[in-house]
TrEMBL record:
Keywords: Membrane, Transmembrane, Transmembrane helix. InterPro entries: GOLD_dom. It holds the Pfam family EMP24_GP25L. It comes from Giardia intestinalis. It comes from the Eukaryota. Residues 34-221 form the GOLD domain. This is Emp24/gp25L/p24 family/GOLD protein. The chain crosses the membrane at residues 194-213.
Length: 225
């Protein structure tokens, strides 16, 4: 039983060691593009990064990890355990803030294209004199292909809906045009009917007037007036 427990503990330790090695390898591969610098919590260090369309801002960081220090460097009791991260948008407004510690990866999705500021340090501890050492890599990161495909499908669906609305508007315009032609035809027919009716009324009035004059003339002749 003790033998099996020992194997389980060794296996867990091996998995932890492998995960730690993989994370260290990730930072080793990106170390060529990383910035290395010392900071204090009382000062602010800012970097600019231009956001690209349809891409995130990716931060790979390492704060006060052992590989950043050589022998004879600052004592451990003077090192800060974390650093404040703030991201400013193109309008110089804070859109994201968090505390960074140890090592890790952070993805930020900008809303606009343009220059963003990534600032470290500062915060509420203005008089904090603790120091730190950090490596930071800032780069543009394209989202996964499935996200791009989903966005493309969403755009295609939007275009399809707009085309359907445009077709419906065109059909409504055609119906309105047809109704207008029918209405104009009815107006023309009514106008002709009114003209013909007026002519008939005038002709009837003239005929009645002539008949009345002849009748009066005949009456006067008969009476020899």
């Amino acid at each position: 039983m003790a033998y099996y427990l020992g194997l389980i503990f060794q296996f867990d330790a091996l998995k932890l060691s492998i995960s730690h090695c993989m994370l260290s390898l990730l930072f080793l591969l990106t170390a060529t593009n990383a910035l290395y610098f010392d900071f204090t919590n009382s000062n602010v260090i800012c970097f600019r990064h231009k956001a690209v369309v349809d891409q995130d801002i990716r931060l790979l960081y390492s704060v006060n990890t052992p590989e950043l220090y050589a022998k004879g460097s600052t004592s451990l009791n003077q090192r800060t355990s974390s650093v404040l991260l703030q991201i400013y948008d193109v309008y110089d407004a804070v859109v994201f803030d968090t505390q960074l510690s140890d090592r890790g990866e952070l993805l930020f999705s900008p809303r606009q294209v343009g220059d963003y500021k990534v600032c470290l340090g500062g915060g509420s501890a203005k008089m904090d004199k603790s120091v730190g050492r950090m490596s930071l890599s800032i780069e543009s990161h394209a989202p996964a292909n499935d996200s791009v495909d989903a966005k493309r499908r969403q755009e295609e669906q939007t275009v399809t809906r707009l085309l359907a609305k445009a077709k419906a508007i065109d059909q409504q315009a055609e119906v309105i045009h047809t109704n207008f032609d029918r209405f104009e035809s009815q107006i023309s027919s009514t106008r002709r009917s009114v003209v013909v009716t007026n002519l008939l009324c005038i002709a009837t009035y003239i005929g009645v007037t002539v008949w009345q004059l002849k009748t009066i003339k005949r009456y006067l002749i008969q009476r020899k007036i």
